[in-house]
Amino acid sequence: MAATPKRPTIKQIAEETGLSVTAVSYALRGERVSAATIERVQAVADQLGYSADPVARALRGGRTGTIGVLVGSLADFWQQTLAHAVQRELRTHGLHTILADADGDPAEELALAARLAAQRVDGLLVAPIGPAGGDWAKLTERTPTVTISGRLPGAELAGEVAFDQTTGVGEMLRHLHSLGHRRIAVLSWAVEASPDRPTERAVREQAATLGLDCEIVQCAYSLDGSRPLALEVLERADRPTAIFCLSDSIAYGVLHGCRELGLQVPRDISVVGFDDHPLSRLVDPPLTSVNWSIDRTARAAVGFLVDYLAGDRGDHRVVIAPTMVVRDSSGPAPS
Question: What would the mean pLDDT of 122-134 be, rounded to a whole number?
Answer without folding.
Answer: 78
